[in-house]
Amino acid sequence: MPQKTESKKMSRPNLRDSIYSLTVEELKEWVKEQGEPGFRTSQIYEWLYQKRVDSFDDMTNLPKHFREKLKQSFSITTLQTIVQQTSQDGTVKFLFELVDGYSIETVLMKHHYGYSVCVTTQVGCRIGCTFCASTLGGLKRQLEAGEIVSQVLKVQKALDETDERVSSVVIMGIGEPFDNYEEMLAFLKIINHDKGLNIGARHITVSTSGIIPKIYRFADEEMQINFAVSLHAPNDELRTKLMPINKAFSMDKLLEAVEYYNKKTGRRVTFEYGLFGGENDSIEHAKELADRIRHLKCHVNLIPVNYVPERNYTRTPKHQIFAFERALKEEGINVTIRREQGHDIDAACGQLRARERKDETR
């Protein structure tokens, strides 16, 4: 039986600090409260997301008194670049500083189909996965939707110089997106809206470590966003070792939630499966995994993990990765191996922040 889902009503504070945090509907309501005509909403969104201005003073078709109201009520969130690393394959990793001094990572990846941006949703993470640098130092705070939006805009402004654009977004950076659900959902609505960044739903992917109540809620949103689950193991014992969240949300319950998502949306789920040498990468593990998920509408994305100095896991040898893939295919499971990117820079999630901001990750 599916669990009772949470209410869909947004529980975000009425007044946000960043103008980028407001969905079209929220901004429209605020504009109305100011006694301004409704078309002001479209004008503001155009200045923010099409013309990409950095100041309310640049919104020259707005009356001066209204621009003053905007300045009194909101900020235009800015991110300062602390470090920018560029890989030989074109991957660019940014370490950005927020207004309160905390830092976050954002990654720009170049594919044959265009540019993809991987965004962060939290400063740190409380999930505690034993292979991940993002959780070092725990969770410091949640990001406001506008701080997530700003990551995409910051990268897009860099691409504007060569008349290129961000064509897809993955929410797989530092943090657990479903642990910051309301802000994550607002972010999705803002970047997807045709007056916002107009990034198609099928070009956006959100990933979770498995917060089950939020999976049911996300299914009920009935969005066309791509959905991924970090699985990394075929059984509870091993998954609990890798991902302590499994103590609260067992694999049986997790896969039951995924099945609900399948039936509710008609869409498949991607299982992210990082391969750790000698831990979860045997042929027996592959066969066990196939047995657990074959009834689901799903796809497995095998991830050759990047080495993290603060963790003890090593990468599975290439021949074993191919053997694991072959074993899944023989069991009838759809599977791919994620293309390696940024291997010559601090590519692992949270790794650059851990190196540059040790005070945040102790």
From TrEMBL:
Question: What InterPro entries does the record point to?
Answer: Aldolase_TIM, Methyltransferase_A, RlmN_N, RNA_MTrfase_RlmN, rRNA_lsu_MTrfase_RlmN/Cfr, rSAM, rSAM_sf
Q: Which residues bind [4Fe-4S] cluster?
A: 125, 129, 132
Residue numbers binding S-adenosyl-L-methionine? 175-176, 207, 230-232, 306
Q: Which cofactor does it need?
A: [4Fe-4S] cluster
Q: Tell me which Gene3D superfamilies the record gives.
A: 1.10.150.530, Aldolase class I
Task: Identify the PROSITE patterns for this entry.
Answer: RADICAL_SAM
Q: What is its main location?
A: cytoplasm
The Gene Ontology biological process terms listed for this entry are:
rRNA base methylation; tRNA methylation
Q: Which UniProt keywords apply?
A: 4Fe-4S, Cytoplasm, Disulfide bond, Iron, Iron-sulfur, Metal-binding, Methyltransferase, rRNA processing, S-adenosyl-L-methionine, Transferase, tRNA processing
Q: What is its EC number?
A: 2.1.1.192
- Can you quote the record's cofactor note? Binds 1 [4Fe-4S] cluster. The cluster is coordinated with 3 cysteines and an exchangeable S-adenosyl-L-methionine.
Asked whether the UniProt record includes S-adenosyl-L-methionine among its keywords, one would answer yes
Q: Where is the Radical SAM core domain?
A: 111-344
Q: What does this protein do?
A: Specifically methylates position 2 of adenine 2503 in 23S rRNA and position 2 of adenine 37 in tRNAs.
**Which family, according to UniProt?**
Belongs to the radical SAM superfamily. RlmN family.
This protein is called: Probable dual-specificity RNA methyltransferase RlmN
Query: What species is this protein from?
Result: Melghiribacillus thermohalophilus
